[in-house]
Amino acid sequence: xxxxxxxxxxxxxxxxxxxxxxxxxxxxxxxxxxxxxxxxxxxxxxxxxxxxxxxxxxxxxxxxxxxxxxxxxxxxxxxxxxxxxxxxxxxxxxxxxxxxxxxxxxxxxxxxxxxxxxxxxxxxxxxxxxxxxxxxxxxxxxxxxxxxxxxxxxxxxxxxxxxxxxxxxxxxxxxxxxxxxxxxxxxxxxxxxxxxxxxxxxxxxxxxxxxxxxxxxxxxxxxxxxxxxxxxxxxxxxxxxxxxxxxxxxxxxxxxxxxxxxxxxxxxxxxxxxxxxxxxxxx
Length: 283
Known about the structure:
Layout: E1 2-8, H1 11-14, H2 21-37, E2 40-45, E3 53-58, E4 61-66, E5 76-83, H3 87-94, E6 108-112, H4 123-132, E7 140-144, H5 148-159, E8 162-168, E9 186-193, E10 196-202, E11 216-220, H6 223-234, E12 238-244, E13 249-256, E14 262-269, H7 277-281
Parallel strand pairs: 7-10, 11-14
Antiparallel strand pairs: 1-5, 1-6, 2-5, 3-4, 8-9, 9-10, 12-13, 13-14
């Protein structure tokens, strides 16, 4: 069973007051206990309602209502999603909420998720189950012959995003078994680009294979930015197709960078000057 454990807002959270280091540490320890028990799926804090809005429909027409909203106690300040065997088990975890929060006066609420078994079998339920079978993320993993750190740093500088990890073989629990010359090689690199991850690792021996028949496609809504990225990727690499106007895109190019990784860079893909937007959207 999945439950949402909601932390209701109060006057402090609605003012955007962040938790103290002591409370932050207590929450991390609380979440870690649930992680170790295998019941914590994820959780997030929410900014004040003054920075949000509601979309209210009246007779089918949406109206945007800006925050803040009152009273604070009826709003939401954060939530965690737990997977447990029963409501009683969820309550037991809720009881362990750090008492440092709001000086011991926090208000929590538990709500159970609907599940497919709650609905009568039918095509709509089957369609919903197909949606649930989809992966949470689709990411790309690249293998490098010892150049992963250089490549991931270069991609971070060129493309942007958040370089989440550059973990070496020497930093793993198996470090004692790693040859000295491999200790500084990367076992896991991760660049987060708008929630999608470009991952990489230094691969040894036969595990390292040159990527063939695959390209990473980056689409931009700014032509100058797309051209800049294409130019940076081609430095020390090889241009397969110049960055130029095509019949399917305002600008499009293909390049293999100096690390042997192939890229497609697009701007206005599906909206070339020869193809009006109306024709693309309504063929």
